[in-house]
Amino acid sequence: MSITLITGATSGIGLALASKLAKQGSELILTGRRGERLDKIKTELSQNAKIHTFTFDVSSRKAVEKFLEASKELLPRVSVLVNNAGLALGADKLQEANIDDWETMIDTNVKGLLYMTRGIVPYMVKANNGHVVNIGSVAGRWVYGGGSVYSATKFAVRAISEALRVDLLGTNIRVSNIEPGMLETEFSLVRFRDPARAKKVYEGVTPLQPEDIADTIQWVLSRPPHVNIQEIVIFPTAQAAIANIHRRTS
Ligand SMILES: NC(=O)c1ccc[n+]([C@@H]2O[C@H](COP(=O)([O-])OP(=O)(O)OC[C@H]3O[C@@H](n4cnc5c(N)ncnc54)[C@H](OP(=O)(O)O)[C@@H]3O)[C@@H](O)[C@H]2O)c1
After folding, report:
1. 115, 123, 144, 150: which one is catalytic?
2. Known active-site residue 202
3. Which of helix, strand or coil describes residue 17?
């Protein structure tokens, strides 16, 4: 039986997708840094599906190498890799922003995604079968003030997705880049480290929910093998463009 590997499955999109796929009985490898959450999720989802969990930080090359070694019996059966683990930190102007935050975003969103892809795709090539789903962002297509480095990381995800597709041409491996707009998860809490500020992001708006993106990924994965959905941009109806958001006043 084939396996779907989802990075960042402890909350948000990753958790919603894991729950959806587990309900269908899919075998899953779920990862994240918060081991206790992974344990709880494993218990919940194991009622319907076989779940493997691994606690590690994707931004650490050594930790990813350890994971690849520890899971090597499972990896030949991985047919779907969802590179979802990622984050934004801060929203300050570039000239004022925290350089440590930049390092973390680049190390996680770009280098982490690369380490995982480099580790898993050779197994897919060997099997001549697979699907890499990268979670980009509308910030990987358009920029906004205070989002320079987060945008840069998601522009990189788009570039990596496009180039990987070219590198894999001639194989049966598909590469998709999913680019959500405003989405209510723990994302803003992580970004601002302040619950009140995070709440304000969604004030007067009906944002996307993680289940909306999980539904989309499930649809992308279920297309016939000759169909590769290369890219999907998804905004909530109240967001016409990256910086054009309609907020209800009452
Ligand atoms: N929410 C939005 O508005 C939005 C819009 C467009 C795109 N996205 C993208 O969607 C993806 C998922 O985010 P989300 O909105 O679902 O946010 P979330 O609820 O904060 O989930 C992020 C997930 O990534 C994991 N993660 C973060 N850093 C990690 C690291 N260094 N190593 C391993 N796992 C790590 C977290 O797990 P641990 O903390 O347990 O490690 C968590 O499971 C991200 O790539 C994000 O950039 C979000």
Report:
1. 150
2. no
3. helix
- Name every protein residue with a CB atom under 6 angstroms from any ligand 1 atom: 7-14, 32-34, 57-59, 84-87, 108, 112, 135, 137, 180, 182-183, 185-187, 190, 210
Q: Over its length of 250 residues, how does the chain's per-residue pLDDT go in tens digits?
A: 899 999 999 999 999 999 999 999 999 999 999 999 999 999 999 999 999 999 999 999 999 999 999 999 999 999 999 999 999 999 999 999 999 999 999 999 999 999 999 999 999 999 999 999 999 999 999 999 999 999 999 999 999 999 999 999 999 999 999 999 999 999 999 999 999 999 999 999 999 999 999 999 999 999 999 999 999 999 999 999 999 999 999 7
Query: For residue 245, how many C-alpha atoms fall within 13 Å in the half-sphere facing its CB?
Result: 20
Report how far ligand 1's centroid is from the alpha carbon of 136 (Å).
11
CA angle 155-12-216, nearest 5°?
70
Ligand 1 site-directed mutation target among 15, 31, 33, 110, most atoms within 8 Å of CB = 33
CATH dotted code for 3-241: 3.40.50.720
pTM: 0.98
Q: Which residues touch 149 (CB under 8 Å, ≥6 apart)?
A: 94, 97, 101, 102, 105, 106
- What are the structural domain ranges in the chain? 3-241
